[in-house]
Amino acid sequence: MPSPLPLPHPLITLEEAFLSPHVQSFYAAQNHPDPHAPSGLTGYATSALLEFGAARLSSMDANGISLQIVSHVPNPLPLDIPTAQAVNDDAAAHIVANPAGRFAAFATLPMKYPPAAAAELRRCVEELGFVGALVDSNCGGAFYDDADFLPVFAAAADLDVPVYIHPCPNEAVKQLLYAGNYSAHIATSLSEYAWGWHNEAAVSFLRLFAAGVFDRLPRLKIVLGHCGEMIPFQMERTANVIERQWPHIGGTHERSFRTVWNENVWVTTSGFFDTGNMACVLRQCKRERVLFSVDYPFGKNEAGVAFLKKLLEEGLVDEEGLEMIAWKNAESLLRVKVQKR
Fold first, then answer.
1. Domain Amidohydrolase-related spans what residues (predicted)?
2. Which end is more exposed in the chain, N or C (fewer Cβ atoms within 10 Å of the end residue's Cβ)?
3. Helical (H) or strand (E) element with 98
4. Which of 10, 22, 121 is nearest to 75 (CA)?
């Protein structure tokens, strides 16, 4: 796809992936198949994930992207503490090695070890200047409503930085729901990119709500990618059932689901470049809570810019709303300053 003419204002993208060689070494040491290998499901993107310099910047420049917020690709095998720290040090080194102001980062956390994960988040924000954390939607099959994980979210709330919940493979769910009368490769695709892991990312957030995490941490900020991981489409049904049913079955939530959605959640586009999906998002989310994201290199920067222009052409947003989605909302949430190019 040829690069469209850049928009006449800055762009910030929030879910842009890289791959650290330390993670490749971690999988090899564990004698575990490397999910990011060139021969794997997303092998077409491995070289772009490993590249963190001229080619990445060239694509950003061609499409008018001023600032890319990078994060590590998902890890179905939870990382140990030294590997997570090395990934973050890698990201920090890449940011310094590139032109100033072009990259920022979400921390990678060793979520299997919650106290260490909370400490690593503090290190990344306070010492490395990171803007929050991106966590997989599950930790080796475990979800974050378990009280053991609360210190991580408490640290994020205390630091006033967001936690981005990103889809991640889940082998237990894959075998239960997606293995069927077709190839194992199709089952993997169904359980991940085609359907399952978007649903699971939504479930990960819903479990936090159900466990009362947002009552305990009313300032906690959560980011959901891929146009809200199906929740905007289900909003009326989910919110109405929670409101009507849960008080009768032991629900004691002080803050309603809609309140949490409106006050604690931000949604990014991350590769979902369909205006039908976006129309639903814009109906169910305050426009100051919607942010642009490409999902590079799985999504194409050219497609993202074309999508933003289409939002304007189809009348889904006005010029002010487009700028909010394109960069102003990200500046506000992440407390970054974009360089106007």
1. 82-335
2. N
3. none
4. 22
340 found inside a domain: no
- Tell me how many domains the chain contains: 1
Query: pLDDT per residue over 80-98, tens digit each?
Result: 999 999 999 999 999 999 9
Q: What is the CATH number of the domain that holds 239?
A: 3.20.20.140
Question: Which amino acid is located at 177 in the chain?
Answer: L
Q: Verify cis geometry, omega within 30 degrees of 0, for the bond prior to 74.
A: no
107-125 pLDDT per residue, tens:
999 999 999 999 999 999 9
Q: DSSP readout, 12-48?
A: EEEEEEE--HHHHHHHHHTT---TTSTTSTTGGGHHH
End-to-end Cα spacing for the chain: 23
The pLDDT of residue 36 is above 60 = yes
Residues of the chain by 3-state class (helix, strand, coil), percent to 5: 50, 10, 40
**Does the global pTM surpass 0.90?**
yes
Would 161 be classed as within a structural domain?
Answer: yes
**Domain containing residue 179:** 12-334
Is 6 contained in some domain? Answer: no
| 7 part of a folded domain | no
Average pLDDT over residues 256-271: 97
